[in-house]
Design brief:
Elements lengths: L13 H10 L3 H36 L7 H8 L3 H17 L4 H36 L8 H22 L5 H17 L1 H15 L8 E4 L4 E7 L3 E5 L7 E4 H5 L3 E3 L7 E9 L5 H20 L18 E7 L4 E9 L5 H19 L16
Antiparallel strand pairs: 1-2, 1-5, 2-3, 3-4, 6-8, 7-8
């Protein structure tokens, strides 16, 4: 009698043969056979954990001055790899030297392949995400948004899972087909969510917003960007009392001022007026001394003195007289801050300091004077 190879009996998958081996296995004998492989796995994991701990400490000491470079990103991606490598070595030893039933050997082979694919996938995902995050941030660090990290991790790890399923003998074509059909149905039902996702990607990839940028919307909300998720952008206002959560599409369609681009430092202007009998040279000298002290204290300002002792730092404070007012000579004091939200503290400290110093130096800030003439006069 001739059997058709398309019949169920001739069409067993790897999983069917694996189940047959398990059904016919002597479990007492199996426990004896598994004793040595278990010892090998425990020893491999112990050695791997010890090596990983030593390497992690050395990597941390070596890369303190190289944060944000491709080398540091790759070495950070290798964290935990010694554990996986020792585990792979132990599994390879078990598969090739232990006298295990064919079904059990196949189990260890599957586990070995899974560990290899998972290890390579994790290193690739960490390295690629780190490099792209540094390139998009423009700040030299690997700070990235939740949205960007989630997309990269999902794509890379999903590819690894499909490779593993293919090795197990599971056809991935129906899975891809179902994902395509399901994706269309999800897209129709979650149009607003997808609009926020693509708006967030547009903000990140166009570099309009970066994590830690200080922004202000035309609607009045302002603060430092702390995260861009799949639906929302979170900003922290200067008070740091409550966070402001805004849909990505609202930010993408709004007029936004980014105070961190193209540079983080900003100019703070403080208008002042002194009486007409003041010595303007003294006023300028005293004002610059107070402004310089405030910048050093609040923004870690460092003078750049030349051989003549003159400060050549372009961010040094400046005084500019500009108007003969009704009751005072008016001028502006220009201070510099490295970050936008430092301005509030700097202006606060400067006003307190300049008021106290003017009183000590006898410099008068006059009250506004208005002379009102009546019709009889």
């Amino acid at each position: 009698m001739r059997f058709d190879c398309s019949s169920i009996a001739c069409n067993k998958t790897k999983g069917d043969f694996f189940l047959d081996h398990l059904m016919n296995m002597d479990w007492m004998r199996l426990s004896e056979l598994l004793f040595l492989p278990t010892c090998i796995l425990v020893a491999s994991l112990t050695i791997g954990i010890s090596i990983n701990r030593v390497l992690t400490q050395r990597i941390d000491r070596t890369l303190k001055t190289e944060e944000g470079t491709v080398k540091s990103i790759f070495l950070h991606a290798l964290r935990g790899i010694p554990i996986n490598f020792c585990l792979m070595s132990g599994l390879y030893w078990i598969v090739n030297t232990s006298e295990l039933p064919s079904g059990l050997s196949r189990i260890f082979s599957y586990i070995l392949f899974t560990v290899i694919v998972f290890t390579l996938t994790r290193v690739f995902e960490r390295t690629l995400s780190g490099i792209i995050s540094v390139r998009l941030s423009g700040t030299g660090d690997a700070t990235s948004s939740t949205l960007l990290n989630t997309i990269f991790k999902t794509v890379v790890y999903a590819s690894g899972v499909l490779i593993i399923l293919q090795y197990y003998g599971i056809s991935i074509a129906p899975i891809l087909t179902a994902m395509g059909v399901g994706g269309m149905a999800v897209a129709l039902g979650l149009q607003e969510t997808l609009a926020n996702i693509f708006a967030g990607l547009q903000l990140i990839l166009s570099k309009q917003l970066r994590i830690n940028d200080y922004i202000k919307l035309a609607s009045g909300e302002e603060g430092r960007v702390t995260d861009i998720t799949w639906r929302l952008t979170t900003i922290m206002p200067p008070s740091e009392a409550n966070v402001v959560v805004i849909p990505n599409k609202n930010i993408a369609g709004a007029i936004t001022t980014n105070y961190s681009r193209p540079r983080n430092d900003i100019i703070i202007t403080v208008p002042i007026g002194v009486s007409y009998d003041s010595d303007l040279d003294q006023v300028e000298r005293v004002t610059l001394e107070v402004a310089l002290e405030v910048q050093k204290r609040t923004d870690n300002y460092e003078p750049m003195l030349d051989i003549n002792g003159i400060d050549r730092n372009p961010l040094k404070p400046a005084v500019r007289f500009h108007t003969f007012g009704d009751s005072s000579i008016d001028f502006n004091v220009f201070l510099h801050a490295h970050q936008f939200d430092v301005q509030y503290l700097m202006k606060h400290e400067f006003i307190k300091g300049i008021t106290k110093r003017y009183r000590e130096e006898g410099i008068n800030i006059p009250y506004p004077i208005r002379t009102v003439l009546t019709a009889a006069e």
